[in-house]
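pinned: reference chain
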Amino acid sequence: MTAPKPHPSTEGLTPYPVGLLLTDRRVVVVGGGQVAQRRLPALIAAGADIQLISPATTPAVHAMADAGELTWHRRGYADGDLDGAWYVLVATDDVAVNTAVSAEAERRRVFCARSDDAAAATAWTPASGRDGGATVAVLTGDPRHSAALRDAVVEGLRDGSLAARQYRERTPGVALVGGGPGDPDLITVRGRRLLADADVVVADRLAPRELLAELPEHVEVIDASKIPYGRFMAQEAINRTLIEHAKAGRFVVRLKGGDPYVFGRGGEELLACVEAGLPVTVVPGISSSISVPAAVGIPVTHRGMTHEFTVISGHVGPGERSLTNWDAVARMTGTLVLLMAVDKIGAIAAELIAHGRAGSTPVAVVQEGTTAAQRRVDATLDTVAAVVETEQIKPPAVIVIGDVVNVLAG
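pinned: its structure tokens
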């Protein structure tokens, strides 16, 4: 098979590969669309001081700003914005703006990557992936060729063969893929392989962001972020999106955080696709209900201490339209794991205490579990509401209630 030729605008250009150490160094990103959404997670992981300049962003980029992972300047680019920058990424759909940014970068001798014209840039973003402690970065001048080589090397590292797999032409359909709790290494091998074959990826906010950065440029990424109390795509619209793209002859991956069926509404998506006559593959994912506690040293069960653990969705609190029998839950002796319960934890704790659970019962709250931003705070049922407020805990967070919270403490 003949290898793809470099993009015409980059023929004759030979990049010098280098790894930038950007921790606490100012990086300016101009544009808040899908290109920025793909590139930002790697810059965040590198510890860069990211200054995002854009009048508007995608919901996922907005969430990064809300989480304090970057500083968002809600305006257009102005000359002088690159003052003090070590690296610049320009990714707007306005050629004049992109040209002006790269011209300022040239004057200031700051390396600048352009999403619209690689030949006019002074830096290229490689197709990159990670395996363990190794980063694989490929530059060819053609994004699709770079991504294909990167995928072959990374998969070879992961399965120990270093053999490039054959490209598989997939039949149209839908795969519901559980991406795991947040760490991109915790997606299953099958899930990663299906993701690599996708024509379209419909991704949740809680799906591992770094996996999207590994996708070839031709893959369409649709942001189905369900940001709490923010913008969201209705479930019916998600179902319709999956069906429309699959019926148009594409292989669609619905990438979800955790497991598709654990409070993920994957069952509704499967039923909608089956009703539309589409083949559906379901790939289980590692649920945050067990993996996040494990990541901070909490086993949800422990011999001689508990014979059961119960996973409860806390997005609806006691006294609302909750389907949970809180009286029965309070009288159980095992571990309780609450998902989506940050805003309701005060009411839930009070309900459990009212029905007999001791106020001194240990509680752990784990925010952004398995990611670089992971944080654990400890409390009791009596104090957890105040602790969550004082510590300014934000979703996503997993709350563990029971004696297992301290069983492995040294």
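why pinned: The radius of gyration is 23 Å. The chain has three domains: 19-125, 168-283, 289-406.
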